[in-house]
Amino acid sequence: MLIREEPATEVTVATRILARAGVLPAEGRVTVRAGEVVYVSALGVSNHTMTPYDTAIVRIADGQVLFGIPPTDLERYLAVYRAHPDVGSVIARADGALESAAALQPCALRLLEERGGVAGESAGDGRWRALVADARVVGALLGAFPLGEE
To answer: Of all helices (H) and strands (E), which one includes residue 83?
Structure first.
């Protein structure tokens, strides 16, 4: 099994940004589909300090763990992926409900918009890059990227 750094890094960066903004509950997770598997922060990992190496990988179809130890409530996230093959990301909202979208950035930005942290017209790839840059400046993403990418 090849563990891809890109999805693990995407999960890490989004998790830290959403946790810092207060829109991701402590037990909430950011998940990303990569083909037939989902990447998610592993059990017992803080949303504020996780790294790509703290990611679990689970097969969507049957929940088989391929790497790491997934959180105990992962099945509810997997159910969304199974029911909606077009979903690329599922994220827990502060109220415990799940938010989903075709890709991670729109899903995360929707949560931030609801909180009032992102203006509607500035949503999109450019706004996401700005959020990542801001988080880097304040040190919120230290250790969030594989070695050599920071």
So the answer is: helix 74-83
User: Which of 3-7, 22-26, 72-76, 79-83 has the lowest average pLDDT?
Assistant: 3-7
What order do you get walking across the sheet with 98-101 strand by strand? 65-67, 55-59, 37-41, 30-34, 89-92, 98-101
CATH number at residue 58: 3.40.225.10
- Which domain covers residue 20, as residue numbers? 5-137
d(CA 90, CA 136): 24
Q: Can you list the positions of beta strands (E) in the chain?
A: 30-34, 37-41, 55-59, 65-67, 89-92, 98-101
Does residue 146 form part of some domain? Answer: no
pLDDT tens-digit series, residues 79-113 = 999 999 999 999 999 899 999 999 998 999 999 88
- Calculate the CA 97 to chain-centre distance: 15
63 falls within a domain? yes
The number of beta carbons lying within 10 Å of the beta carbon of residue 115 is 14
With respect to residue 45, please indicate whether it lies within any of the assigned structural domains: yes
